[in-house]
Design a protein that fits this description.
single chain, about 725 residues, Rossmann fold, Arc Repressor Mutant, subunit A, seven-stranded parallel beta sheet, six-stranded parallel beta sheet, 17 strands, about 50% helix
């Protein structure tokens, strides 16, 4: 039987398929001909078959290097599912007992095993190396090969030693490297490290037209939004990715108390618990897994309908691979990412302690994530461009499957600005990164630009009126349209292309959508709900608040603050339970003032045929309840503010914020014992008169009013006492 017939026979008999998908056939032929092979294929494209099928045909045992135990287990289970003989595939690692290791080695030595899965750490053990020298290895497959590169999203130093180890076992072994994500830089790193410069490259399209890409602003209402999204997709399988184990646990608990079948997955869990949660997900006993990025590599669950990134991902490669878990059966897949610049700042702060090279690489990768989140252009086009694939957002498949294309923003003519941006890059001889180019255009100096005497540059400050978001958006457009290139090897410096030079010779009008997101750091502050709420109801609620305030001789804001009223106009609570879930209300204030507000809202809903949201109440995890209790008890015991903060490893301003939350929700805090330590009696009288007469309790206004007589801490502390005494 010739090779082709053998391949098709194995494909049908073992795997149950009639035809190969994409480049699978050519890849397998390449391996069977003992040629080095490099496969770049998106998640769901059928990478596993590329080494599983030739392993079954070839003489000896194929050695498969894989980064995770969970991934290896999944692969072994999959291969064993095709065979009556469990010995056909094995894992060899430190988790096995000595008896199990002996059994594995016997099966390999007796030619019963066709695929052996190992981690690079296990491969390098001398006992394993000596054993592998003594048996017939058919070829070497390296799964998740991007782990080799420092420029990859999941760099693992052990992967860089694979070639040295293999050379000691059998340097003539044919190598197949496989990855679902790889930029040009990562590709070259893989090839160089594995010494497979002669490898044949097989690359599939990265376009997944069934996936819908969406980015939402991460506000202080993100948990509410998350619960609503999942409940609208009730019964569907989904993954939520978080960056920390703590956040995984927190979000998992939030889902469970809101009657969503969910479980956590991270490396800190007991192995049995982790495995059980993974199996529960695969067996559909739970709908949602909340996980760190350790979950998902190689998870073969075809009907995952949504992948949510609660925290902004560290790289686009990681993001693409993680979102690739959705819709692998060709059905719907929703890829939702929550984004705030404060998350970016946290990641940047984390990088400060890293070595310079590692920090520079990670910063560049993070810049790409920011660009993806903030772009107003096709997100699909941006992703595919990042992986070196051209995508026509006007014609190609999946063109309307992202939030920017579904709801496009108004386009403006950027011809003159485009000429300026390209002219600046040319004039400065491509020595600047994007952020430096933007800083020059808006007239913002930094240490680097000052040292270059940038004031004398004719382009300095010419685009100040446009703001940084505009210029970033324009430069992202230039990259997508191949007008500029970002030179990764030069740590992100921009260069103009021949296409750009041609454009400058004959410039034409260019219309593109430009972001209306607030500039730079203001993004993190834009956490308000952009809905205006029901203005007519707002007017009625404010009138009621004013009436009650007059009766009690207290300022209206003491009863409910404006953000609380606004949320009432959006959610229309008609019971005390619903009202208590409103921001800044809580059980105390709900019982004290709620009945009259409920009456007004209920009457308004009825008279105006208001259709209320179905999922008003989102239960909180009560994470802060223990802290709340501790603070209340500590104040009852008359502990100093400094001692309370220190005992919980909190800063004073963090403690003040927690105390504000407690008081706003209707719980009394008696600070009489300690207020004298900070503010004398006459000053307290002055502050009382101010707050009782003021229409607002805004601290910024108060600071201006008192012209520095009090600091922010003193004003906030007295405001807590004032609100507690009058409202609670």
């Amino acid at each position: 039987m010739n090779i082709e017939n053998l391949m098709y026979s194995c494909l049908k008999k073992t795997f149950g398929f009639k035809d190969f998908k994409g480049p699978q056939k050519k890849v397998i032929e390449n391996i069977l001909n003992k040629k080095n092979t490099f496969v770049i294929m998106p998640t769901g494209g059928g990478k596993s078959l590329c080494y599983q099928l030739p392993a079954l045909i070839c003489e000896g045992t194929a050695l498969i290097i894989s980064p995770l135990i969970a991934l290896m287990k999944n692969q072994v289970d999959s291969v064993r599912g095709f065979s009556e003989n469990d010995s056909i595939a094995h894992v060899l690692n430190s988790s096995l007992s000595s008896e199990e290791i002996t059994k594995v080695k016997e099966d390999i030595a007796n030619n019963r095993t066709k695929l052996l899965f190992m981690a690079p750490e296990s491969l390098s053990k001398s006992t394993n190396m000596e054993f592998l020298k003594s048996v017939k290895i058919s070829f070497l497959a390296i799964d998740e090969a991007h782990c080799i590169s420092e420029w990859g999203h999941d760099f693992r130093p052990e992967y860089r030693n694979i070639r040295k180890t293999v050379n000691k076992i059998d340097p003539s072994l044919a190598v197949i490297a496989l990855t679902a994500t790889a930029t040009q830089k990562v590709q070259s790193d893989i090839i160089k490290n594995l010494e497979i410069e002669n490898a044949d490259l097989f690359k599939s399209s990265f376009n997944r037209p069934n996936l819908f890409y969406e980015v939402r602003q991460k506000s202080d209402q993100v948990n509410n939004d998350l619960i609503k999204f999942i409940k609208r997709n009730e019964g569907k399988s989904g993954i939520i990715y978080c960056l920390s184990r703590k956040k995984v646990e927190e979000i998992s608990e939030l889902l469970v108390i809101n009657n969503i079948k969910a479980a956590p997955y991270h490396a800190g869990l007991d192995v049995k618990v982790r495995s059980q949660n993974q199996d529960s997900f695969l067996m559909e006993d739970i709908d949602v897994v909340v996980a760190t990025i350790a979950f998902g590599m190689g998870i073969d669950k075809p009907d995952i309908r949504y992948v949510i990134h609660y925290d902004v991902p560290k790289s686009l490669e990681g993001y693409y691979q993680e979102t690739g878990r959705a819709g692998r059966d060709g059905g719907e897949g929703h890829c939702l990412a929550y984004y705030s610049y404060s998350d970016i700042e946290k990641l940047e702060k984390f990088l400060e302690s890293k070595p310079k090279t590692e920090k520079d690489i990670a910063s560049l990768l993070l810049d790409e994530v920011v660009a993806y989140c903030e772009t107003t252009l096709s997100r699909r086009k941006y992703l595919l461009n990042y992986f070196g694939e051209f995508y026509d957002s006007e014609k190609d498949e999946g063109r309307l499957m992202d939030d920017n294309m579904k709801n496009p923003k108004t386009k403006i003519n950027v011809k003159e600005e485009l000429i300026s941006a390209l002219g600046l890059i040319l004039k400065t001889k491509s020595v600047y990164k994007q952020r430096d180019i933007v800083n020059i255009l808006i007239g913002n100096k930094n240490a680097l630009l000052i040292s270059h005497d940038i004031d004398s540059n004719e382009y300095f400050g010419i685009g100040k009126s446009k703001g940084s978001n505009f210029w970033n958006g324009l430069l992202w457009y230039c990259r997508l349209e191949d007008l500029i290139l970002k030179k990764i090897e030069n740590f992100g410096c921009l260069i103009v292309t021949e296409k750009a030079l041609d454009y400058l010779k004959n410039p034409k009008d260019v219309f593109i959508p430009i972001s209306n997101i607030p500039d730079e750091n203001n993004i993190s502050k834009s956490t308000k709900d952009f809905d205006t709420g029901d203005k007519k109801l707002m007017s009625q609620l404010k009138a009621l608040r004013k009436k009650i305030a007059r009766e009690k001789s207290i300022p209206p804001y003491v009863i409910f603050q404006d953000p609380s009223l606004k949320e009432m106009t959006l959610k229309y609570p008609i019971s005390l339970d619903e009202l208590s879930s409103i921001y800044g209300v809580g059980d105390g204030k709900s019982k004290k003032y709620g009945n009259e507000f409920i009456k007004v809202i209920s009457r308004y809903v009825e008279e105006n045929d208001i259709v209320r949201p179905d999922d008003i109440i989102v239960k909180s995890t009560g994470k802060n309840s223990s802290l709340k209790l501790f603070i209340i008890q500590a104040i009852d015991r008359k502990l100093s503010i400094e001692d309370i903060a220190q005992s919980k490893s909190m800063k004073s301003d963090e403690l003040i914020s927690e105390m504000e939350r407690i008081v706003y929700s209707g719980t009394k805090l008696d600070l009489s014992y300690c207020i004298d330590d900070y503010i004398d009696e006459d000053q307290q009288g002055e502050l009382y008169d101010y707050f009782i007469e003021s229409e607002s309790d805004d601290i910024e206004i108060a600071l201006t009013e008192f012209e520095g007589e009090y600091d922010e801490f003193e004003l906030k502390l007295f405001r807590i006492k004032f609100l507690s005494d009058l409202a609670n």
